[in-house]
């Protein structure tokens, strides 16, 4: 649990690289924790709320089910599952994010853990979901395999992640936004603007919809499908154990 873990705040200006070393990623998110939710809302032009609703519908958590919410951050994505009657376990690598989350949502049971070494039994969850976090994991294949391990047979996976816009002219505009406008806007709203340089880099290096679907299939997930959100800026991938 987050209350039992000691740690230090992230360094000002800390940012990860595309090597995605776990210590760098954790420190970077520690540094953006205080204003993370605000920054997401501004930088996504409010679209993050619609994306969270789409995740909630895709997971379709029922009362009594157990849901693992990985890369849960401050618990913004976890809270709707609890309100739906499910037992949700918000899990994140960043202690700074978890501490902010615990202050804002004390009813949630936050857990500090690494997606590559989850502290849960085989088949412990009915559903596993991760929003905008798989891209930041050091080893995507190992993380997907570990998620599959903790999902019960017949259980489901929902991955919400940045992807590739489907309309070519908009794809170019979006790429220019990532490189130029996003870091400048982050300077106004984020407690660690340097982290958003990494955000832009990691989005541009991430596979498109079909590429991520192939990775899910390679990790043993079945029935992989995806749905584009906001014209493919974000893609929602679903699969079953």
TrEMBL record:
It catalyses: a 2-demethylmenaquinol + S-adenosyl-L-methionine = a menaquinol + S-adenosyl-L-homocysteine + H(+). It is an enzyme of class 2 (transferase). InterPro entries: SAM-dependent_MTases_sf (IPR029063), UbiE/COQ5_MeTrFase (IPR004033), UbiE/COQ5_MeTrFase_CS (IPR023576). Pfam families: Ubie_methyltran. Keywords: Menaquinone biosynthesis, Methyltransferase, S-adenosyl-L-methionine, Transferase. S-adenosyl-L-methionine binds at residues 74, 92, 114-115, 131. GO terms for molecular function: methyltransferase activity. Pathway: Quinol/quinone metabolism; menaquinone biosynthesis; menaquinol from 1,4-dihydroxy-2-naphthoate: step 2/2. GO terms for biological process: methylation. SUPFAM superfamilies: S-adenosyl-L-methionine-dependent methyltransferases (SSF53335). Its EC number is 2.1.1.163. Belongs to the class I-like SAM-binding methyltransferase superfamily. MenG/UbiE family. Methyltransferase required for the conversion of demethylmenaquinol (DMKH2) to menaquinol (MKH2). This is Demethylmenaquinone methyltransferase. It comes from Microlunatus spumicola. The gene is menG.
């Amino acid at each position: 649990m987050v209350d039992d873990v000691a740690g230090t705040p992230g360094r000002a200006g800390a940012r990860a690289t595309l090597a995605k070393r776990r210590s760098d990623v954790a420190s970077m998110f520690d540094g953006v924790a205080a204003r993370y939710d605000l920054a997401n809302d501004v930088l996504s032009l409010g679209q993050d709320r619609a994306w969270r609703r789409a995740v909630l519908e895709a997971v379709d958590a029922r009362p009594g089910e157990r849901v693992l919410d990985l890369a849960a951050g401050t618990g913004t994505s976890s809270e709707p599952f609890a309100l739906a009657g499910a037992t949700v376990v918000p899990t994140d690598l960043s202690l700074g994010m978890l501490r902010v989350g615990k202050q804002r949502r004390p009813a949630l049971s936050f857990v500090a853990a690494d997606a590559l070494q989850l502290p849960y039994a085989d088949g412990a969850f009915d559903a596993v979901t991760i929003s905008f976090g798989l891209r930041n994991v050091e080893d995507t294949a190992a993380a997907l395999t570990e998620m599959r391990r903790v999902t019960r047979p017949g259980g489901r996976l929902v991955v919400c992640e940045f992807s590739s816009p489907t309309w070519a002219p908009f794809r170019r505009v979006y790429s220019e936004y990532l490189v130029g406008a996003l870091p400048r806007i982050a300077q106004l709203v984020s407690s660690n603007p340097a982290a958003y340089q990494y955000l832009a880099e990691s989005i541009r290096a991430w596979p498109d919809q079909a590429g991520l679907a192939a990775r899910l299939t390679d990790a043993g997930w079945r029935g992989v499908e995806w749905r584009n959100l906001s014209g493919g800026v974000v893609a929602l991938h679903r699969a079953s154990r």
